[in-house]
Amino acid sequence: MAMTDLLKTEEIKKALDAFTAETFNPKKFFEMVGMKAMSAENVKKVFQVLDVDGSGFIEEEELKFVLKGFAKDGRDLTDAETKAFLQAADKDGDGKIGIDEFEALVHE
Q1: Is pTM, for the whole model, over 0.90?
Q2: What's the rounded Cα separation, in Å, for the pair 90 and 94?
Q3: What does each C-alpha distance from 46 to 20, 22, 79 come to in angstroms?
Q4: Which residues form the EF-hand domain (predicted)?
Q5: Are 69 and 49 a contacting pair, CB within 8 Å?
Q6: Residue-wise pLDDT tens digits, 57-74
Q7: CATH architecture of the domain with range 9-14+25-107
């Protein structure tokens, strides 16, 4: 499944353009692409697209490239943005984001 099967291309582009270097805010980004209004089931489908290795978690290494999961020309997150994103979503402190943690962050 492609991200464009779940979200509108123009909303993805607008959100990517809104967050230039060092400004990424995952909650605002997810709202801009329309994920906040999605059902929990569809948010979990987005998670599965972003979980590149299929481990059931988005690890820090995958998180750095999360914007590329939305669009091929998405930029890499900086180390600071990656750590802030992980800190915002990783509620159990295991160093990775599970599907329920991801859904909770989107709908927070």
Answers
A1: yes
A2: 7
A3: 22, 23, 23
A4: 38-73, 77-108
A5: yes
A6: 999 999 999 999 999 999
A7: Orthogonal Bundle (1.10)
* CB neighbour burial string for 22-47, b if at least 16 within 10 angstroms, e if fewer: eebebbebbebbebeebeeebbeebb
Residue stretches of the annotated binding site for Ca(2+): 51, 53, 55, 57, 62, 90, 92, 94, 96, 101
Instruction: Pinpoint the alpha helices (H) of 19-90.
Output: 26-32, 40-50, 60-63, 66-70, 79-89
Q: Mark the binding-site residues, compressed into ranges.
A: 51, 53, 55, 57, 62, 90, 92, 94, 96, 101
In this structure, are residues 74 and 67 in contact, taking their beta carbons and an 8 Å threshold? yes
- Main-chain dihedrals φ then ψ at residue 89, nearest 5 degrees: -100, -30
| pLDDT, tens digit (0-9, with 9 covering 90-100), for 31-40 | 999 999 999 9
3-state secondary structure of 2: coil
Contacts of 53 (CB under 8 A, 6+ apart): 59, 62
